[in-house]
Amino acid sequence: MERLELAEGTALAFHRQEGDSPPVLFLPGLLSDMEGTKARFLAGHLAERGRAYLRFDYRGHGRSSGRFENCTLGDWLEDALNVLTRLLGIPALLVGSSMGGWIALLCAKARPELVEGLVLIAPAPDFTERLLWQRFSAEQRRLLQEQGVIYEPSDYGDPVPITMKLIEEGRRHLLLEEGQTIPIRAPVHILHGQQDRDVPFALSLELSDRLASPDVTVELIKSGDHRLSRPEDLKRLARAVDEMWERIR
After folding, report:
1. Which of 67, 82, 94, 170 has the fewest CB atoms within 10 Å, counting from its CB?
2. 15 is catalytic
3. Phi, psi of 53 (to 5 degrees)
4. 196 is catalytic
5. What Cα–Cα distance (Å) separates residue 111 from each residue in 2, 54, 114?
6. Catalytic residue check, 57
7. Of 32, 64, 97, 98, which one is the catalytic site residue?
8. Which of 57, 196, 198, 233 does the annotation list as catalytic?
9. What domains appear along the chain, each with residue ranges and CATH number?
């Protein structure tokens, strides 16, 4: 493990594997990290093929600095851009899972010259608005506005602290606003389970329609859940990454 120093004494933890370019950069989901199943699976898969790969933890996640409750999507986007520009610095293939899919899209929008292609796993663009705020009850919204934080139950562990700061700052990065084309022209391959209870697969179909890229594939897995971490799902991920890597090299 290595560390990328940021401002004010904070740092990002990361693992880097040397190999052939373009490098693959993995962007994990909310409260996930570089030791997750998909991140580690790709580490082994890409090492076998001699391809460059980098995985890291956002601030407030895993082994990086900071507290989750103090961070917002803009902070995590800044982390990803720091990794993309300071640690890689050359065009890369971005693989984003859930929230990491939203961040991968924002990276491609902000630095198109450094993003050659995207593989997105159950991407969750605009989740702070679409999947949190718009789904909250009036009572949840009231508590969030008054207290600044509420704790949402999670199928994956402890309740998740959702702050009003996270909701409000997320509105600066929305991609699916009505009538808006997302100015990303890189090729995109989306994997999404139809049994996903966290991020509806309809969101990926909407994303496909909004992307400016003429080269977008949406692969639906009928029995797949949100994690897409079963052996058969990981094989699909490997195939999608391999095919995209060969196309953009």
Report:
1. 67
2. no
3. -150, 140
4. yes
5. 24, 18, 6
6. no
7. 98
8. 196
9. 2-125+176-248 (3.40.50.1820)
